UniProtKB/TrEMBL annotation:
Organism: Neopipo cinnamomea
GO cellular component: chromatin; cytoplasm; nucleus
Cell compartments where the protein resides: Cytoplasm; Nucleus
Family per record: Belongs to the PARI family.
GO MF, one annotated term: DNA binding
Record carries keyword Nucleus: yes
Protein's recorded name: PCNA-interacting partner
C-alpha cells in the first residue's frame, strides 16, 4: 500500500512538472477521490434539477453512479451494471464541472501520463489498481481484520473523534490554500465557506451556486462580486438577481474579506518561505478563534499547520536547488 501511494504521489508530481501538456493554466488543481465524489454528487443534483425540478440526489444513487462512472472512465467492464438514469447527462455535467473549476481528476491525469509515456514502466498504474485506490477498497482490505476485531471502547470512540477532527482540519486548511492557487475551485470553497461558522449553510451555498450559474462565473467570484457591489454601492443597490444573497451579507463579507487578507500576504511578502508560514499562521488563528484549548479540532489544526509549513519549506528549498543547478524556469513560489 505504501508503494502504491508513492506511485500516486509520483503521478501528481509528473503532472506538476508537465502541467503544460495537461492544461492551459498553471493554477490547475488535482481533484482527488473525495473531491471527485463531491463533484459527481453536485453534477447529479444539477441534472436532477433539470429533469425533475429538485436540486437533490440520494446517497445510494450517487454511490451507484460513482461505481459506474469509475469503471467507464477507466475502461473496465461494466456490462453487468445497470446504467444509471440520465448517465450521459451526468457524465457531461461532471466533466463540465471540473472544467469550470479548473481541475483534473486522478483518472484523467493517469491516462494522460500513460498515453504520453511520462512515467517509467515500473511506475505504471493499472486501471484496476487506480479503481481500488480511488474507491477506497485498498484501505478497507488493509484495515478490515483489525477494525472488525476491535471492540468499541471509550478510548476507541475518542480516537474516532480525534480522527474526524484531523480530517476536517486538514481539509479546511488545504481548501483555503487551494482557493489561493485556484479561485475557481468550487469544491474547496464548499469545504470552507462555513468553516469557521459564518451562518453560511446549505441554503447560502445553493443560492451562491445558482447565482454563479446565471452569471457564468465561479462561486468565489460570484461571492466577491456581490460583496464588492454591496460595499461600493450600498445595501439596497444590487439588482433582483442578488436578492437571495442579501440574507447572507454578513457571512459572505466575513469570508471574502478573510480571503482578501490571505491574498494580501501573498502580494506583500516576496519571500515564499515567510509568506507560506504567515498564511498558515493566519488560517490557523482564523480556524481556532473562539474555541477552547482542549478542543480536538484546535490540536488537529496545530498539527496540520506544522506539517504543511515543513512541507512547503521543503518544496521551496527543492525548487530553489533546481533553479540553482539548471534553467528550467520553474517558479519556486509554485
Amino acid at each position: 500500500m505504501i508503494t502504491f501511494q508513492q506511485e500516486i504521489l509520483n503521478l501528481v508530481k509528473c503532472f506538476r512538472r508537465q502541467w503544460r501538456l495537461f492544461s492551459n493554466s498553471e493554477r490547475t488543481t488535482v481533484c482527488g477521490a473525495d473531491c471527485m465524489l463531491m463533484a459527481l454528487q453536485l453534477s447529479m443534483a444539477e441534472v436532477n434539477k433539470q429533469h425533475h425540478g429538485d436540486f437533490t440526489v440520494s446517497l445510494s444513487d450517487v454511490l451507484e453512479t460513482w461505481n459506474y462512472l469509475l469503471h467507464d472512465k477507466l475502461g473496465l467492464s461494466y456490462e453487468n451494471m445497470k446504467e444509471p438514469e440520465n448517465y450521459a447527462d451526468v457524465k457531461k455535467a461532471y466533466h463540465a464541472f471540473l472544467a469550470r473549476s479548473n481541475m483534473l481528476d486522478l483518472v484523467d491525469i493517469c491516462q494522460k501520463c500513460c498515453s504520453l509515456g511520462l512515467l517509467p514502466e515500473d511506475e505504471s498504474i493499472a486501471p484496476v489498481q487506480l479503481l481500488e485506490f480511488i474507491s477506497g477498497i485498498m484501505s478497507v482490505q488493509e484495515n478490515n481484520g483489525s477494525v472488525l476485531s476491535t471492540p468499541s471502547t471509550q478510548v476507541n470512540r475518542q480516537g474516532q473523534e480525534n480522527g474526524k477532527a484531523s480530517i476536517l482540519a486538514k481539509k479546511s486548511v488545504c481548501s483555503y490554500l487551494s482557493l489561493l492557487v485556484n479561485s475557481k475551485d468550487d469544491l474547496a470553497l464548499a469545504h470552507v465557506l462555513n468553516v469557521p461558522d459564518r451562518g453560511l449553510g446549505r441554503e447560502a451555498f445553493t443560492n451562491l451556486k445558482h447565482a454563479s450559474q446565471k452569471k457564468k462565473m465561479s462561486i468565489f467570484l460570484m461571492a466577491t462580486s456581490f460583496i464588492r457591489t454591496i460595499e461600493l454601492g450600498g445595501r439596497d443597490c444590487s439588482s433582483s438577481l442578488y436578492d437571495p444573497l442579501r440574507a447572507h451579507v454578513k457571512g459572505l463579507s466575513n469570508f471574502v474579506n478573510f480571503i482578501d487578507k490571505l491574498q494580501e500576504i501573498v502580494g506583500e511578502i516576496l519571500n515564499p518561505r515567510i509568506a507560506g508560514g504567515r498564511i498558515l499562521s493566519t488560517v490557523k488563528m482564523h480556524l481556532i478563534k473562539g474555541r477552547s484549548n482542549g478542543d480536538p479540532f484546535c490540536q488537529a489544526v496545530e498539527e496540520v499547520v506544522q506539517d504543511l509549513d515543513l512541507k512547503i519549506k521543503n518544496i521551496i528549498d527543492s525548487q530553489q536547488e533546481i533553479l540553482t543547478s539548471s534553467s528550467t524556469g520553474v517558479s519556486p513560489t509554485r
